[in-house]
Write a structure and sequence with these properties.
Elements (H helix, E strand, L loop, with lengths): L2 E7 L5 H14 L4 E7 L10 H18 L5 E11 L2 H13 L4 E6 L7 H6 L2 E4 L7 H20 L6
Parallel strand pairs: 1-2, 1-4, 3-4, 3-5
Helix pairs in contact: 1-5, 3-5
Length: about 160
């Protein structure tokens, strides 16, 4: 059974997001070994400078690096990443597994994004849309798409 880690910078605060995450955790438990990891987001003032943002992203990246598994595939969620259909994501996950990536780590950055060096290390940079979403909603959307990818692979009626 494939291991999926969703590594998030920032904590869920709203109960409705937590409920949605729990629902997809339950669904995914039948498809994969799911691990959700939350790392603290660096606190910045209301109008941080570019230098302060870069420094915060570097600190967050250092924490992320400590949690990355060796030998797995890293998928960085970022707005400039590649957009894919649900079917294409399912196929990509299957391809990565066929190449020996028994673990996939999906990385969601903080509200300021991800450090550039982390993005360079990613096996895939993935974008859900050119639109901007709250990071907490992006987590729910990502979990739903991972679940959908497994349902596509299994040939169920979930994906119409």
């Amino acid at each position: 059974m494939q291991k999926i880690t969703v590594l998030c910078v920032g904590k869920l605060k709203e109960a409705f997001y937590e409920q949605a995450v729990k629902e997809y955790e339950k669904r995914l438990s039948r498809c994969c070994k799911l691990e959700l990891l939350e790392l603290p987001e660096q606190r910045l003032g209301d109008e941080p400078s570019e230098a302060e943002i870069r420094q915060a992203l570097k600190k967050e990246a250092a924490l992320v690096e400590q949690k990355l598994s060796k030998g797995g595939a890293l998928i960085a969620m970022c707005i400039e990443g590649q957009e894919m259909s649900s079917v294409a994501l399912s196929q990509k996950m299957q391809q990565l597994a066929a190449r020996g990536a028994s673990q996939l780590t999906f990385l969601i950055g903080s509200s300021f994004g991800l450090d550039g060096d982390l993005k360079k290390k990613a096996d895939l940079r993935l974008s859900m849309s050119p639109m901007t979403f709250p990071h907490h909603l992006a987590r729910v959307m990502l979990l739903e798409q991972i679940y959908r990818a497994y349902q596509i692979e299994a040939g169920t009626k979930y994906h119409k």
